[in-house]
């Protein structure tokens, strides 16, 4: 495969089958370094499977994939060391405090105690959460939890962070604040691949792909896709591509 210096992720005909079922069908796409890439698709389209492969957790069936310069068939451990991951479904341990969660995750990611201490206090200041460091995660609001979970996922300064529906269930203002953190991370050079069901968030991405039934049906900047599908919003683009029968049945 061509050198992937400028790409954080490069997939060519990436395929994953479970028996005779093809969950990812010849995905070909690239994510540039530092890019904020939206990975969209209806439920069951195959996003989570692709993310698990890109995180080095699942071996692809065929095709080619490089993540952070490493081969997804042969160097899965190296990939795991180069990435961060956050999902709304599971993010922080509720029965540990804010500071304990940060220490736990940073330790898992192999950071030294000295670095953890110095950076924990900086992080809590940035998030305006210093006075909550001894508060149990269960006792802080969901939106704060998610901002903290994102900060923890990039605490070890990975090359790429994967966000699987990171803002599910939070209000629009908190979601906007969450996106400020995403932009900060991207400015620091961290590549962000994010899935979301909120189409206002799709507009915040630099480029998006839309998966339908295991295939990438569309890929481009939000402006390009709106123009291509003669739509005024990403919501409209998404409905046209991902739910072709939606207009007929509603
Ligand atoms: N281990 C597995 N064995 C068999 N089929 C699987 C397995 N994992 C996923 N699938 C199937 O692959 C398809 C894609 O699932 P996937 O979770 O990747 O979709 P998704 O786009 O992430 O959807 P969601 O947004 O609901 O998580 C589904 O039909 C699912 O049932």
Automatic annotation (TrEMBL):
<dbReference type="InterPro" id="IPR003593">
    <property type="entry name" value="AAA+_ATPase"/>
</dbReference>
<dbReference type="InterPro" id="IPR027417">
    <property type="entry name" value="P-loop_NTPase"/>
</dbReference>
<feature type="domain" description="ABC transporter">
    <location>
        <begin position="9"/>
        <end position="238"/>
    </location>
</feature>
<keyword id="KW-0547">Nucleotide-binding</keyword>
<protein>
    <submittedName>
        <fullName>ABC-2 type transport system ATP-binding protein</fullName>
    </submittedName>
</protein>
<dbReference type="GO" id="GO:0016887">
    <property type="term" value="F:ATP hydrolysis activity"/>
</dbReference>
<dbReference type="InterPro" id="IPR003439">
    <property type="entry name" value="ABC_transporter-like_ATP-bd"/>
</dbReference>
<dbReference type="GO" id="GO:0005524">
    <property type="term" value="F:ATP binding"/>
</dbReference>
<keyword id="KW-0067">ATP-binding</keyword>
<dbReference type="Pfam" id="PF00005">
    <property type="entry name" value="ABC_tran"/>
</dbReference>
């Amino acid at each position: 495969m061509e050198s992937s210096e400028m790409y954080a992720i490069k997939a060519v005909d990436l395929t994953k089958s479970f028996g005779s079922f093809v969950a990812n069908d010849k995905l070909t796409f690239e994510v540039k370094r530092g890019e904020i890439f939206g990975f969209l698709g209806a439920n069951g389209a195959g996003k989570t499977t692709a993310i698990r492969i890109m995180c080095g957790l699942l071996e692809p069936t065929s095709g080619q994939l490089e993540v952070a310069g490493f081969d997804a068939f042969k160097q899965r451990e190296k990939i795991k060391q180069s990435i961060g991951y956050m999902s709304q479904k599971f993010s922080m341990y509720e029965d540990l405090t804010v500071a304990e969660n940060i220490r736990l995750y940073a330790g898992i990611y192999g950071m030294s105690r000295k670095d953890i201490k110095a950076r924990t206090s900086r992080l809590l200041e940035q998030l305006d959460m210093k006075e909550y460091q001894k508060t149990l995660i269960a006792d802080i609001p969901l939106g704060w939890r998610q901002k903290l979970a994102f900060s923890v996922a990039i605490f070890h300064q990975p090359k790429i962070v994967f966000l699987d529906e990171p803002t599910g269930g939070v209000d629009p203002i908190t979601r906007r604040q969450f996106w400020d953190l995403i932009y900060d991370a991207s400015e620091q050079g961290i590549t962000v691949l994010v899935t979301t069901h909120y189409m206002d968030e799709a507009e915040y991405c630099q480029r998006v792909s839309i998966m339908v039934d295991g295939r990438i049906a569309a890929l481009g900047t939000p402006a390009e896709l709106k123009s291509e599908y003669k739509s005024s919003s990403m919501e409209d683009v998404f409905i046209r591509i991902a739910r072709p029968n939606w207009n007929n049945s509603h």
